[in-house]
Design goal:
With 418 residues, the protein is of the alpha+beta class. The protein has nine helices and seven strands; from the N terminus they run H-E-E-H-E-H-H-E-E-E-E-H-H-H-H-H.
């Protein structure tokens, strides 16, 4: 599967500096955190040797190293292929995850290799705002991770997404030696994104309800014109897409909480609480936080579902108002055409007789007025009129029966092939 990645994924050498975060703890010492940026020529060396020099005589109890990579608009990873291959091999992430990366598969994945105490866990997460892949070495409690933020998720830029994720990591860094540390931090960061999206779309839907006058919020302004309805339809389309993304993201977070049993995805809907008893272990407290997050996300899903129904209702209303505007415009056009037709009918008899009396076969200054060649006019006029009427009727029948003839042709074609 990883071969598909190397055949399909495009890389682009970049002169940009790469952001690296490192959190570490020595035995019986406080947690240290450091973030630096490195040019491409020293990146691999720094990652392998640590961005902060490990002190001699101290035993490293746990470590987290996080590398940020970006993509350009052509979906190219902004790093050399050889450098990425070397980093990925050093991090020890399951090669199958490369297949998920190149396919940009949405969701989460967890693989476990080796013995319980000596093996490696690999994780993959692709959410609406970022892609995150990491490995956790159970014996040494070392975590190596790569984060690839999206160029933009309509809320933040790539740099903004990364900054918010780092902020979440900082608030939870005392748990970083656990395999589910990045998993929990991702859920916390994404739950905040859910709050932002649902709040923004709620305001947008309220404003649309005010303008359409179909909903809980009614405006005193005049009804929207056709041009404004088009703009409103674009806004409601964006709201529908954003809410659908948020719904999918909520499902992903619930599944992510269930990985490693951090929080059951089939838990009850009762109000969970955090036990602040200091005698409880950090792992037990983290699981309580996860249970609380599960409840909050489930409730948020209900809110999103409610907003989706309101957005869908407004979509139907806007479509109806646009159709009504089109119908009124067509009615005005039809009235104008009717006036033109009536005016034409009024002038047609006079035009006909003026033309008829002007033909050379009528001699108004002689007796008789009708000459012997007048029959030529009658012979050509009557057949031509009948021919045009027959042609019109035939063309109309062809348009009516064409679909049936096409179906009949397909049936005959299948019978011939059999």
């Amino acid at each position: 599967m990883s071969s598909i990645f190397w055949e399909s994924q495009k890389f682009a050498h970049s002169n940009q500096y790469y952001d690296v975060l490192e959190i570490l703890r020595y035995t019986d010492e406080p947690i240290e955190a450091k973030s630096e940026s490195f040019p491409p020529r020293v990146l691999v060396h720094k990652l392998k040797n640590g961005i902060s020099r490990h002190r001699r005589g101290r035993t490293l109890a746990s470590l987290l190293q996080l590398l940020k990579l970006d993509r350009n608009q052509d979906n190219q990873l902004l790093i050399g292929a050889d450098e990425f291959r070397e980093i990925f091999r050093f991090y020890g992430i399951d090669p199958f995850i490369l297949y998920l990366v190149v396919r940009q598969s949405h969701g989460c994945y967890h693989s476990r290799h080796g013995d319980d105490d000596e093996g490696v866990d690999s994780f993959y997460l692709n959410s609406v705002s970022m892609m995150l892949l990491w490995s956790y070495q159970r014996a040494s409690k070392k975590t190596f991770a790569i984060i690839i933020p999206r160029q933009s998720n309509s809320i933040d830029t790539s740099a903004g997404i990364y900054a918010k994720f780092l902020n979440t990591l900082g608030k939870q860094k005392e748990l970083f030696e656990y395999p589910w540390y990045l998993q929990l931090a991702s859920v916390i960061e994404q739950s905040l994104w859910l709050d932002v999206v649902s709040g923004a779309e709620l305001q947008a839907i309220r404003h649309i309800e005010e303008r359409t006058r179909h909903g809980n919020w009614v405006s005193t302004e005049s009804p929207p014109e056709f041009s404004e309805l088009i703009k409103i339809s674009e806004k409601i389309g964006f709201a529908n897409a954003a809410l659908a993304n948020a719904w999918r993201q909520a499902d992903l977070m619930l599944n992510l909480l269930a990985v490693n049993g951090l929080a059951s995805s089939n838990g009850n809907r009762d109000c969970d609480r955090i036990d602040t008893n200091i005698d409880r272990s950090k792992e037990e407290q983290a699981k309580q936080v996860a249970a609380l997050l599960r409840t909050q996300i489930t409730i948020r899903k209900d809110d999103i579902s409610y907003l989706q129904k309101r957005a869908e209702n407004q979509s139907s209303v806007i479509f109806g108002l646009i159709s009504l505007n089109v119908a009124e415009s067509a009615k005005l056009d039809s009235s104008a055409m009717k006036i033109i037709a009536v005016m034409t009918m009024l002038f047609l008899p006079g035009t006909f007789f003026a033309t008829l009396f002007a033909v050379p076969s009528l001699k108004w200054d002689e007796d008789p007025v009708i000459t012997d060649r007048f029959w030529v006019y009658v012979v050509f006029t009557i057949p031509s009129t009948l021919f045009i009427l027959i042609l019109y009727k035939g063309w109309k029948n062809i348009l009516i029966y064409q679909p049936r003839l096409d179906k009949l042709y397909e049936v005959v074609k299948k019978l011939n092939t059999c």
